[in-house]
Amino acid sequence: MELTEQDRNDFRAEVRLWFKENTPEDPGFVLPQTFMEVGTDQQFEFLRNWQRKVYEAGYLGMAWPVEYGGGGKPQVLQDIVTEEMIRAKTPLIMNTIGLNWAGPLILAKGSEAQKKAYIKNILTAEDIWCQGFSEPDNGSDLGNAQLKAERDGDEYVLNGSKIWTTHGSYAKYMILLARTNPQANNKYEGLSFFLSPMQVEGIKTVPIKKLTGEYGFTQTFFDDARIPADCIMGSEGEGWKMAMLTLTFERGAAGGQAGGVAILYASVQEVVDMAKKVQRNGRPAVEDPVLRDQLVRLLMDEKALSLGGIRAGMAPLDSERPLALPLSEKLQGSELQRRLADVAVQLQGANMAYYMGDSEAAENGRWQRSYFNAFSATIGGGTSQIQKNIIGERVLGLPKA
Amino acid sequence: MLNVKTERTINFSDEQEQLLEIATNFCREKSEIAQVRSLLNDEKGFAPQIWLEMAELGWMGVAIPEEFGGSGLGLGEVVALVEPMGRALFTSPFITTTLAAQALLAGGTQSQQARWLPRICKGAVLSLALSELHGDWDLSNLTATALEKNGQLELSGTKTFVSYAPDAQALIVSVSLNGAPALVLVDAEALPEGALVRETNVDETQRTYRVVLDGLRVPSDALLNSGDIVPVLNQIHLAANLLSAAELSGGIGGVLEYTLDYLRTRKQFDRLIGSYQSLKHTMTDILLGYEATRSHLYYAAGCFGADAEGEIALRMAKAQASETLAYAADRAIQFHGGFGFTYDCDAQLYRRRAIWGASFHGDAPFHRQKLGDLLL
């Protein structure tokens, strides 16, 4: 289907109107800024309903195949919707592990039965998905995952533990990396990948209190939990390959995601606006030359990031190292958010010491909370330091350690 | 994380694409490092026969309208030529001549345009004499003066960093006339004996001269348009920074590859040194700075002259390019170890280029300050 610019503009206008009319009012409680921060049942129910409403309007999974519940339309339309969600400052779409990580993986590598079983309910938020990759002793060294999956007849028996499970207590399914062969030639070949049910005897989730003082992750314990053998993705020993493919979706380095905004990024302009209001030596802080330099650097980095997203698709400007931009987006975006929140906290002067809960905290302590929560993205999905190794090795061709 | 596209986009034309490819091949072929180094001690500092080839390819006329013999494209297309030049450390009077042509287009009289623009297209070198000894980047801060006397202009004062002045057929000189900035087109033949003094430039690939104006007399029709010349100076400032950003961007690409070659082959403690994270992560930081530079640069190239956004974009490009090349070349010296401390290591060439680039119409803090005024 060839879309003209007119088609796209018409569609954008339609979408803009829909979000204007349907974006929910402030619910009266704090909403998460990222999908990883869903910490109360109240937040969860609100966001699940919102996702369902967006899907039913036809604005989620627009480019996924019709036979599994998608819209069968060009990706560009979904991108327009996601842009308009940001513009309209809508709540986020919370089932992102299903929509943007597991879903594209299942569509790319899953069996027909798996696609039929899972895709539609990911879109409606009927089934919430979580990810079981990191373990208490194996974070950055994901290939060393030790959770055991032993074949027993028509089942696998799971023993071990996973950690940092976003939506662990709400999830119906988990994408799970487990060790099926401890005697394999190397640690990677011993791994397999499962689409594991969570409501199974022997699987227990325990909430983890985050550095912010809130909840939002769980640790998941597996104690002789039995899951059907056909939950495996691919065959035994293909786990590492599947996990790496999942991470390329997770980091946005490959397309195929269902769409929807999963993280409400703060913009530098918000901090600039604050700098005009707060005072230093009786003058607006924005007049301070050191602060101005900091703000301009942030504006430049934010602009470079959004331009990089455009240039990544422009072959003649991108031919030398085509992976550089896709592989650096997560690193750059997450670090920018952390630095931005850090500046926003410091900007508050003496009031930077207020925390959420205090009636005088600026924007209900939003920036303090954002700063601490920003580490979820600079650590999760491969730390910034791991990202630099990956870029150094895969883009620059530098040798592994 | 999702790759969300903004509404404003990078305009990259077919012409830019072609020029980028042609210039990349041209500079690779004509400016191997041995050639760059042989020119360091050459009095001219560039190869005249290659300059003529560039003229035959039509490069000097890329941003000159067709009526004057050019191809009628814009400075955005010139960016695609200059970036590969920077990468290969290829030097010539191209940037200064292109900027002189832009100055004539922005502020020249009809007869000045008719006389000089076609010649530029055919390979005449022109140069700009804008800087002064005070080192201020404000092009309106002028101590050189012109006095009107008997239908002539009598010039005095000293201009600095006039590129390739002995090869220039004419100079465009900024002076203060009746207390306001003015631009004067000076025919090279009018320059008194000894007016040009070769400068010792930190970047040995460049040839720059001080020009002593004292005793210089030119006819009064040598003035560029007598109206307010400040907007013309501002336009030259912006154009100079766009092309400088392109040259510096290319330099980052060059020094990055040069350093990577070393880190991928040099062994210490039985390990390739590029496997050490302190080096690997630094190189990644440099790559990210390079990618940011190119995004800013080609965005700026696509919207040059459009509106305030064009100015913001090119100042961002220059600030990013300048700071990234300085860092990349500084680390290139360090990462080459003892060899990095020698003249033979090419890292110093790029570090010197970064200083020259920063000196050329504003360094990174200068442009960030201007951006602050535009954005905050």
Describe the structure.
The complex is a heterodimer of chains A (401) and B (376). With 401 residues, chain A is an alpha+beta fold. Chain A has 3 domains: 5-124, Acyl-CoA dehydrogenase/oxidase, N-terminal domain (Butyryl-Coa Dehydrogenase, subunit A, domain 1), CATH 1.10.540.10; 129-250, Butyryl-CoA Dehydrogenase, subunit A, domain 2; 268-395, Butyryl-CoA Dehydrogenase, subunit A, domain 3. Chain A is 42% helix and 15% strand. Chain A is built from 11 helices and 10 strands. The longest helix of chain A is centred in the C-terminal third of the chain and has 23 residues, at 289-311. The termini of chain A are far apart. Chain B has 376 residues and is of the alpha+beta class. Residues 1-6 of chain B have low confidence and may be disordered. Chain B contains 12 helices and 11 strands. Chain B has 3 domains: 14-125, Butyryl-Coa Dehydrogenase, subunit A, domain 1 (Orthogonal Bundle); 128-222, Beta Barrel (Butyryl-CoA Dehydrogenase, subunit A, domain 2), CATH 2.40.110; 230-375, Up-down Bundle (Butyryl-CoA Dehydrogenase, subunit A, domain 3), CATH 1.20.140. In chain B, a hairpin with a 2-residue loop joins strand 10 and strand 11 (271-272). In chain B, 51% of the residues lie in helices and 14% in strands. Chain B is globular. The two termini of chain B are 29 Å apart. Classes of the chains: A alpha+beta (401), B alpha+beta (376). The interface between A and B is large, with 62 and 49 residues.
